[in-house]
Inverse folding.
């Protein structure tokens, strides 16, 4: 027979109890004037992109409960100001051989392993699940990574290349036949052609580009496809901000390729392709 | 040797009986018994490996009943100079999110082992806390602890949990998530601690990267002090992280009060973080908990938490209310079952989810 004990209240330290009871009176907000991420409607506008949607519906409302500030777990801060820079092409702290986000390759991205529960280290994210992320949110992250993990659009005075596959000085695996360029703004597709891009090999020979296009639904991305895999060796991709066919965005802002703050200049991306494909 | 171990066991039991109770793992247990964390944990700030006292208490005071040979008292010491311990938690979890189908799973929440090499008994230890599941093995703590004055002043260096507020078993508590200081995010640094009759205080300097590689020259400094009385206690924490990404300032108040079999426990943390966005952000979180020791081996825990993600934004606050029943039928075994109800802005389903769990917890 279990004997139940009941509370008794003694003297001394009673001033601690009101403090604790006061904490118990805190209530949740009613969300008035806020978006789904808990941020004010009419605040700094988010651009129309998958990454912004990921930030607004996943990172900000869920992940920043822990992944916030200088003490964020594994040094991974997922607030809007830091998330992109801490994810894309950044080695995981738990498994340094794996990138947190490997642009173009969701299956090789550590963030996907963590949210799907297949990571070799640590718990599935969110750590307080279940529930874990709904499949449509996981699919959103996969789709964003598969598209080259472009950052949210941040139109400025010029069109700029914000990331690329390959990144400068990166070594791509053998068999590569597809390259991606990601821009800060919507690219004017009428200016996108094989003339606005140039790929040369180590012998300075032009490599033919079979298809150069803005993929459907990815208005800030240029996809380059070769008709055969690149041979092993060194290459340089030039993105034209000068010449007869400079790239520009939908507002007519020309590419600032050399990053000097003046419209014009080519963006040069040297990269290597490892050995012969099998 | 056998006579010596028997002496230790009998002595420990008598000590516990003399105190008419004792402490163990969670802060409410320490408050219930009027003791400090160091009484039951080799880590003076709590958590991880249990002391001889803690192990003895778990066998004689915590559980509803003790089974087995009364003379077989587990002390943690498996050989001279080496003590071991561990925790394993196996869960069945269920989650319900508005507008989604209910999900549930079985999961190993954690399986951890502790090793304490007391190379100079009561003075110098090399301590390791290794998590073996879920996933691959991960080191959580690895440090050297040296008591400059026995049981009064120590220095610790290596990988460790930092001292800030109460060290809850639930790392998902808002206060532990907000501070970023919990048992999922150890850091590397050095800690100095003082233990007095009614006081416990610590100062730690660490990388401030929550275990990730150091990325700048700035460091995190945290301090914690607590005044402990038999029926109540109160403490304060403060921290400053000097980081290139932006400085982070943290302050916290915490305390507990015992009313017979009920312990009231609370914590309030406030953070001013320049690293979050342009202009920085001010955040706060609270926890209020009542633990009712209904009978020997039976505890009912009611917790209400509040999270303010941005002091400059109104109506964005979130709460989490939990009711957890903990039953310890025999020594070193605990069955826990509970529900957690989240309440947040209505436009975000995940902030309004419900969770339930049943957990089998074995420890030694």
């Amino acid at each position: 027979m279990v004997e139940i004990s009941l509370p008794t209240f003694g003297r001394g330290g009673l001033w601690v109890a009101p403090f604790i009871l006061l904490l118990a009176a805190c209530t949740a907000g009613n969300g008035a004037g806020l978006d789904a991420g808990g941020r004010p409607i009419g605040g700094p506008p988010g651009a129309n992109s998958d990454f912004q949607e990921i930030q607004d519906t996943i990172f900000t409302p869920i992940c920043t409960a822990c992944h916030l500030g200088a003490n964020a777990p594994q040094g991974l801060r997922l607030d809007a100001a830091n998330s992109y820079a801490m994810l894309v092409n950044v080695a995981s702290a738990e498994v340094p051989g794996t990138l947190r986000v490997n642009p173009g390759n969701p299956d090789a991205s550590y963030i996907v392993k963590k949210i799907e529960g297949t990571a070799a280290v640590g718990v599935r994210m969110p750590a307080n699940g279940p529930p874990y992320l709904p499949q449509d949110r996981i699919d959103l992250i996969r789709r964003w990574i598969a598209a080259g993990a472009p950052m949210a659009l941040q139109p400025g005075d010029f069109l700029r290349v914000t990331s690329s596959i390959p990144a400068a000085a990166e070594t791509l695996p053998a068999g590569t036949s597809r390259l991606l360029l990601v821009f800060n703004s919507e690219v004017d597709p009428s200016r996108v052609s094989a003339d606005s891009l140039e790929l040369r090999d180590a012998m300075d020979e032009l490599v033919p580009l079979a298809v150069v296009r803005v993929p459907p639904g990815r208005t800030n991305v240029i996809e380059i496809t070769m008709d055969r895999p690149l041979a092993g060796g060194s290459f340089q991709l030039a993105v034209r901000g000068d010449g007869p066919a400079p790239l520009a965005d939908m507002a007519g802002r020309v590419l600032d390729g050399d990053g000097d703050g003046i419209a014009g200049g080519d963006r040069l991306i040297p990269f290597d392709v490892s050995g012969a494909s099998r | 040797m056998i006579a010596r171990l028997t002496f230790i066991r009998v002595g420990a039991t008598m000590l516990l009986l003399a105190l008419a109770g004792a402490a163990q793992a969670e802060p409410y247990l320490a408050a219930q018994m009027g003791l400090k964390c160091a009484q039951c944990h080799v880590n003076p700030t709590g958590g991880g490996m249990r002391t001889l006292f803690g192990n003895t208490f778990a066998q004689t005071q915590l559980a509803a009943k003790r089974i087995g040979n009364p003379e077989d008292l587990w002390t943690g010491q498996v050989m001279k100079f080496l003590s071991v311990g561990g925790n394993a938690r196996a869960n069945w979890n269920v989650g319900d999110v508005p507008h989604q189908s209910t999900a549930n799973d079985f999961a190993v929440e954690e399986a951890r082992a502790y090793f304490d090499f007391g190379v100079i008994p009561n003075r110098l230890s090399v301590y390791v806390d290794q998590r073996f599941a879920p996933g691959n093995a991960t080191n959580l703590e690895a440090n050297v602890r040296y008591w400059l004055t026995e049981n009064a002043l120590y220095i610790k260096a290596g990988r460790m949990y930092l001292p800030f507020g109460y060290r809850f078993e639930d790392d998902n508590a808002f206060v532990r998530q907000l501070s970023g200081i919990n048992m999922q995010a150890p850091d590397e640094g050095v800690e100095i601690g003082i233990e007095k009759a009614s006081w416990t205080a610590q100062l730690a300097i660490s990388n401030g990267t929550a275990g990730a590689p150091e990325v700048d020259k700035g460091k995190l400094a945290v301090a914690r002090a607590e005044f402990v009385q038999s029926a109540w206690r109160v403490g304060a924490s403060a921290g400053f992280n000097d980081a290139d990404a932006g400085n982070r300032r943290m302050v916290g108040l915490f305390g507990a009060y015992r009313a017979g079999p009920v312990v009231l426990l609370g914590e309030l943390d406030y953070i001013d973080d320049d690293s979050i966005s342009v202009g920085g952000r001010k955040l706060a979180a609270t926890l209020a908990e009542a633990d009712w020791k209904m009978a020997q081996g039976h505890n009912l825990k009611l917790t209400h938490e509040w999270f303010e993600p941005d002091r400059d934004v109104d109506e964005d606050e979130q709460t989490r209310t939990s009711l957890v029943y903990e039953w310890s039928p025999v020594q070193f075994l605990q069955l826990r079952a509970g529900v957690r109800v989240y309440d947040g802005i209505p436009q975000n389903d995940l902030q309004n989810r419900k969770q339930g769990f049943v957990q089998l917890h074995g420890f030694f």
Helices of chain A lie at 16-23, 50-59, 83-87, 110-116, 135-146. Residues 44-48 of chain A have pLDDT under 50 and may be disordered. Chain A touches chain B through 68 residues (CB under 8 Å).
